[in-house]
Amino acid sequence: MLLCVCWLQLLLVLLSCASLCRGENCPASCLCPDPHTVDCSGRGLTRLPDAIPLDVRRLLLSDNWIPRIPADFLVLYSDLVYLDLRNNSLSRIEPGTLSPSSRLVFLDLGSNNLTEIPKGTFGESRSLIKLRLGNNPHLSMVNEDAFLGLTSLRELELERNALSGLKVGALSQLPSLRVVRLEGNPWVCNCNFANLFAWLMANRHKLPNGVEGMECSLPTDGRRVALSQLSQDSFRECQASLTLTDFLIIIFSGISVSVAAIMASFFLASTVHCFQRWSKGVKGDEEENEE
């Protein structure tokens, strides 16, 4: 009996020490439910907390007022695999924040103030599996190469943003993509949307609800139309239409051909003139020799 009591006392001492050590490594006003998790959600933070353990793997920072993340943040916390920054005040992500060597698997940037996702934002992070970018009311532009190199990305959320269009290349270069959310955006049914519409029809199995509930506005009168009511024939006129770039190419090609024709004509005329002068010279020499 005495032995059991001694073992119980020793166990309590060890648990107390572990708890104290964990508390010492935990940032002020945050919770650390286990040695590799730091929970600072809903603490009214206006910047990243100090003294985050370097071996943290799950960092919860949702529901704060954090405006930016330093570009070298993930370099310092190389073991981090789960980062929740939902519902903060982020307006942009510093280039180089993620890198190919990053171990991050889950990243939530939803419900922030992001306005655009430029090329190279996620640094070709090959470990990233789930990326949440939904509910950013000012997010109106996603670069075609914004997700370049995210070869392991399976779930992408872009719902309820301010996107009126999206280049298909931003999605087609994600070989592991299984789920994508695009509903709730103010899509415009113009010729720029035609390719995205074709991609959505071919990949509707990747949309949680298919195209049901997705709408786009007509460029003529702004009337909202459900994508389920459209077909490829709805964009038939776009196949024959020419963009400004097409017109510039045609004009430049025409000018180039004209210049080439003029130079060729000038060269041919010069050659004929020289040949005529040479012929007259040869004929004159022959006449002198005969005399």
Explain what the structure shows.
With 291 residues, the chain is α/β, with parallel strands linked by helices. It has helices spanning 2-25, 73-76, 169-172, 191-202, 236-240, 244-290, and strands at residues 31-34, 37-39, 58-60, 82-84, 106-108, 116-117, 130-132, 141-142, 155-157, 179-181, 187-188, 215-217, 224-226. The strands form three sheets. An eight-stranded mixed β-sheet has the order 1-2-3-4-5-7-9-10, with no helix packed on it. A three-stranded mixed β-sheet has the order 11-12-13, with no helix packed on it. Strands 6-8 form a two-stranded parallel ribbon. Strand 1 and strand 2 form a beta hairpin. The longest helix has 47 residues, at 244-290. The termini are far apart. The model is unreliable at 1-23 (pLDDT under 50).
In short:
By secondary structure, this protein is an alpha/beta fold. The chain has helices at 2-25, 73-76, 169-172, 191-202, 236-240, 244-290; strands spanning 31-34, 37-39, 58-60, 82-84, 106-108, 116-117, 130-132, 141-142, 155-157, 179-181, 187-188, 215-217, 224-226.
